[in-house]
Design brief:
Length: about 625
């Protein structure tokens, strides 16, 4: 599992007897477990006392018997396989001693979900600040169980930060109340993010000039350019919770001054760690480790493939359906009466299918229909074909005169599906086993020296073998390949926890909001699913070539040419249907024959010689119908 986050740090203040505190604690833990999907692994106890033992006994009744309990008696505790813990201490003064023993356990690269019970804390805010820089830094939420002045009532509280003009000031906020007698919550128990509004507080996004993760923040002279997922997250959060941000370069010596200003908080920092940090004080809630895949670009399109590129799939499908319907109607009309053909395209049209094809390809029409409605529809089809041909020819010329490549690899899944051979450092052996199904025959591991892998990749890439290289040292790969158009750098960040060799660290103050935003963006716990759904972000970040490739035409681009004539077609079809419905059953043709008239004689003509009678003119009416 690659995505793990610290869960809850619960502080129970004052001396609380009865088993109600155990039940209240259990309810909050259970709710958080459902919300976050975590399990309680073990229980750590401070110096034993009667009250603590009583709470432990009650917790044992409701917790799984498999949960181990460790009694802390001032010795170091080695934590190996766990994600969460409950700490019960008699007084807050033991926390510092207890935290010192924790420092050795963090070498296991585990983030702990810590639940702390303290009987006596004189100054709540001060004690919280002490713990905030030690054990509580590994937590997601802080909940406080405080005994109310009302009998048998426990107040569930949290600290709300950024609640007034003093941006780093916090105060307690009542979330819910628990009745020990009825063992019920007054309101519905909900798990909510700690921060809701930052009231336009100004926050710094610190970065270091030696930061080698190129796709986050880079400095060019006095100009700071922002790239990648972290600036995107900061912009989202700034709109979400109302704060302003600015980027500030710092050295490691300046970090304490920036982070501890009264009116500012550092959102996140970048630093390079060569060993695991030995202190919980420096463990972040969210940590990213960037894995870089260097892969060949997409293959070039062939000339024949470019013939179909000008239009997208939707246009080609609609065009195919249009011709299928036209030819189907023509085929059916071959088996009906001739009078139906008259209404569709006329008896004079002997090759209607050839008519459709000749118009589409710009050839003259063989014969024009004799009726007005088919003529009008045919004229509109001619207009449609002219628009279609013009768009297609212009785009085809643009495609033929440019070197277009097929889509590049965007996800780890595609590397696997296309059977790429993976060349990686030996340090990624366990990582690849956990989240990839690549067979061992297609994975080659090299020593941890990154330059050797780069040179090896350069040698192998001259062949046609499908290969990719994995590394964490982005700067080496960028310097090697940024000016080489043959390769593309694909970033594949992994969201992890704990302390790894090369990491980015977020400050704990915004960890909850980062986490909640990631929860919305992340469809599952697998990193490449996140990249697949938001691949444009990483693709645009890592792409070093600014060449603009021609874009295919879609229905949105051709909406005028396609749809401007649809109202006319609709009216024509309605008129055509009305003609079919109300047409006469039979058509009568009257033929008139006139009598033969002899030529006029020359000279003077006697009027009596000229006579025209009905017998000389024969009128015959013949009724003929079309068989």
């Amino acid at each position: 599992m690659f995505i793990k986050f610290s869960l809850i740090s619960t502080l129970i203040y004052e001396k609380i007897l009865n088993n109600g505190v155990a039940k209240a604690m259990f309810d909050v833990i259970t709710k958080a477990q459902i919300f976050e999907g975590w399990k309680l692994d073990f229980l750590i106890l401070g110096k034993s006392s009667y009250e603590i033992e009583e709470i432990v006994c009650e917790l044992h009744k409701i917790l799984s018997p498999t949960v181990p309990i460790i009694i802390y008696r001032g010795k170091h505790i080695n934590i190996t396989d766990t994600n969460s813990a409950v700490i019960l201490t008699k007084s807050s003064k033991y926390l510092n001693k207890f935290e010192s023993s924790f420092r050795f356990s963090t070498r296991q690269r585990k983030n702990l979900n810590i639940f702390v019970y303290c009987e006596k804390i004189e100054n709540k805010i001060e004690s919280f600040n002490v713990m905030r820089y030690s054990t509580v830094r590994a937590s997601m939420f802080e909940y406080f169980f405080i005994k109310s002045k009302i009998a048998n009532i426990i107040e569930l509280q949290t600290i709300s930060w950024f609640s007034d003009k003093i941006c780093n000031h916090g105060h307690f906020v009542n979330i819910n109340s628990y009745n020990i007698y009825t063992q019920k919550w007054i309101k519905k128990l909900e798990i909510k993010p700690k921060f809701s509004n930052f009231y336009s507080c100004k926050l710094y996004a610190g970065f270091n000039e030696s930061t080698y993760y190129f796709h986050y923040i880079r400095k060019f002279g006095n100009k700071i350019e922002r790239f990648g997922i972290i600036p995107m997250m900061i912009e989202i959060l700034a709109k979400l919770v109302n704060f302003t941000y600015s980027y500030k370069e710092y050295s490691f010596a300046m970090f304490e001054n920036i982070n501890r200003k009264e009116d500012n908080l550092n959102i996140f920092i970048h630093q390079k760690q060569t060993i695991a940090l030995p202190s919980l004080e420096n463990i972040p809630v969210i940590e990213t480790s960037s894995i870089v895949f260097v892969i060949p670009p997409g293959e070039l399109y062939t000339i024949y493939e470019k013939l179909f590129l000008p239009f997208d799939r939707t246009i080609w499908i609609l065009l195919g359906l249009t011709f299928h319907i036209a030819f189907l109607i023509i085929f059916i009309l071959n088996f009906v009466k001739k009078e139906w053909k008259l209404h569709f395209y006329g008896l004079n049209v002997n090759a209607p299918a050839l008519n459709v094809l000749s118009i589409f390809f710009g050839i003259s029409v063989t014969k024009f229909p004799i009726r007005n409605t088919p003529r009008f529809i045919l004229a509109l089809f001619v207009l449609f074909c002219l628009v279609f041909q013009t768009c297609y020819q212009s785009k085809l010329f643009e495609f033929m005169t440019s070197e277009m490549r097929k889509p590049e690899i965007q996800t780890i899944n595609e590397l696997d599906e296309k059977e790429f051979t993976i060349h990686a450092s030996i340090i990624f052996k366990e990582t690849l086993k956990n989240f990839s199904s690549w067979p061992s025959s297609r994975v080659e591991y090299a020593p941890s020296s990154i330059p050797k892998i780069v040179y090896k990749f350069s040698e192998i890439s001259t062949t046609n073998e499908r290969i990719a290289i994995i590394s964490t040292k982005d700067i080496v790969l960028i310097n090697e390949f940024k000016n080489n158009v043959k390769y593309k750098i694909l970033n594949e960040p992994l969201i992890t926890t704990g302390v790894t060799l090369y990491s980015h660290y977020y400050n704990n103050f915004l960890s909850e909001l980062f986490y909640e935003t990631l929860r919305l963006l992340l469809p599952s716990g697998i990193p490449y699913n996140f990249i697949q759904s938001h691949r444009e972000i990483f693709y645009k970040i890592s792409k070093e070539i600014d060449d603009i490739e021609p874009q295919v035409l879609s229905l949105y681009d051709l909406d005028f040419g396609f749809f401007i004539w649809l109202p006319f077609v609709g009216v024509s079809i309605i008129v055509f249907l009305l003609e079919l419905i109300f047409r006469p059953k039979k058509l009568k043709i009257v033929k008139i024959k006139f009598a033969k008239i002899h030529p006029m004689p020359q000279g003077n003509i006697d009027e009596s010689e000229v006579s025209l009678t009905c017998e000389d003119m024969k009128i015959s009416e013949e009724k003929k119908t079309f068989n």
